[in-house]
């Protein structure tokens, strides 16, 4: 009976009670590889449900990367909410039968949040292709303008839904993520905001891992039924290959994908899945078919790059060690978790990985990274600090506009360089 309840997922819109009942039914039917929990509550007190799927659903396991999908951040953008329910249905019914899905779930811990803004969804009573008040949460706040921003002070009051997601990101070792929206057809990648340090003068805000972000966006768009065509939703707006840099599209302050990348050490892109924000329910089955392959192929990308542990001379994990690839430092350095683990998403190629325990000499290792997404495991490279036998102190990155400080530092250096050049010219003339 439980399995039949879990499998009975129609192509329609599921309101709060139905959504909760479905998720509880899935967990009851498949308790060995699912875990259902709420990460917090909305303004009106609705649970923010997350279903976790994997071989070890209740806790992080060393070496297994964490992945997440979040939908319905804007309550009136509804397609993502429903296709994530169908993704859950596909994963649980395929596990143990489909070898690819079985390997994917055995090697990845997948977190799925169908709705981040249940209050906004319930407030949108009549389906509509365009903007409605359901976009916002109950307090009238846009949740995708509500996170700390790395470029400027975001004065918006942090909402309960936003705080719940921030806590969630802090408590898990997320490596890769996507948030699902509507109103366009494109895969958008960080940065959404910018200054001169990241290329605002050229109309493109470039992240240190820009090549990886382009790959991630293309992975989704080229596995989607039509996104890769780049035709957009009208003749005025086109997206070559179905992707765009967020800032190049339009500037956004306080966005979730930038927050994930800067403070969560998690690569996130934004997926716009439908020209119509809240399309008729009879179109949902086609949306699922259009996105099904792309959703799976994107999850596989969590196994890009390199991963490993940093340990001391006794083999104990060292948390908060800085591990980054040379040439692509993050404004908030990427650090190991409590198990001393690191995960770096990198495209195939040769890299120098720099592991640093504060107060001790850095350790460099050159690695040749293959494309291991098909094998469901990033390249493994551990670091052992033989002279270290202490736990590194907890480190956190302040929630301040970090790129703003870089811009100031850059601006402060420029006059000095000009003065040096001028002095050299004067000396040459005098000679």
Automatic annotation (TrEMBL):
This is CBPM Carboxypeptidase. Belongs to the peptidase M14 family. Keywords: Carboxypeptidase, Glycoprotein, Hydrolase, Protease. SMART domains: Zn_pept (SM00631). It comes from Burhinus bistriatus. It comes from the Eukaryota. SUPFAM superfamilies: Carboxypeptidase regulatory domain-like, Zn-dependent exopeptidases. One of its GO terms (biological process) is peptide metabolic process. CDD domains: M14_CPM, Peptidase_M14NE-CP-C_like. InterPro entries: CarboxyPept-like_regulatory (IPR008969), CARBOXYPEPT_ZN_1 (IPR057246), CPM_N (IPR033842), Peptidase_M14 (IPR000834), Peptidase_M14_domain (IPR050753). Pfam families: CarboxypepD_reg (PF13620), Peptidase_M14 (PF00246). The active site is at 272 (proton donor/acceptor). One of its GO terms (cellular component) is extracellular space.
